[in-house]
Each structure stands twice: as structure tokens, then as C-alpha cells.
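HUMAN: Quick job: go over this next protein and say how the chain folds.
***
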Amino acid sequence: ARSFQHPSKSEWSSAWCLSLLRTPKMTQKRRNNGRNKHGRGAVKFIRCTNCARACPKDKAIKKFVIRNIVEAAAVRDIAEASVYESYVLPKLYAKLHYCISCAIHSKVVRNRSRKARKDRTPPPRFRPTQNKSDNKAN
């Protein structure tokens, strides 16, 4: 059995450089590596709304929620009891940040097939329509 001889510094560096050139690139699952960081070295972390996990801001799934302060069942009761005729109830505005695992678990996002992942069109935006009674009042 021959004893192993360590290569000299010059041999080591040249061998290492050649091995780097020959190794194939690792496969990428996504074009942006699951982030939106382009050109920035580091991005601040945010805390997940659901589990408080630290997650990079560009990787987190963001969801902007606009809700009525009062649930739908009580809106009519409040409207009837109100002194003002055309009082508009205030809304709650919240920006939710989810880590990937919470977003998948709560079905904010879903995993897609390899072919479907190539589709970069944004999902259709939900625009609430005004009631016809509101239009008649004007």
C-alpha cells in the first residue's frame, strides 16, 4: 500500500480550480431561488404572523387584508340602531407576513407542478363591487 502524499500548494490550487470548472451547476427549482432579492446582498428579516419564525422579507408570502371591523351578521343591527343614515363602518387594514411553511399549511399558496411553476402571471385580483343601493343614493 502506497502512503498518501499531500499535493503542494500550487498543485492543490490548480487541481481545485480545474475541479470547479468541471463540476456541473446544481439544479434550480425556481428561477429566483424562491426569493425576490435581486442585486441586494442581504435583506432584513420579518417575523411570521402565524408562528413568529424569522423569515427574510423578500421570501415571506405577503397578504394585505381589508376587513370590516364588525362581522357581517351584526352590520344590519348596527345600521338600524345608528342615528346616522349613511354611516360607513370603519375597516381593519392588516398586512400579513407568512413564512413558507405557514403559508402552505393555511393554504395561502399551494405547491405547483414543474410546468405550472414556469407560469409567472399573477393571480387575478379580487375587486369588491359596490352595492346597487349605494349607487342609487348618489
Helices lie at 9-22, 72-81, 100-105, 114-117, 132-137. The mean pLDDT is 85. The two ends are 96 Å apart (CA to CA).
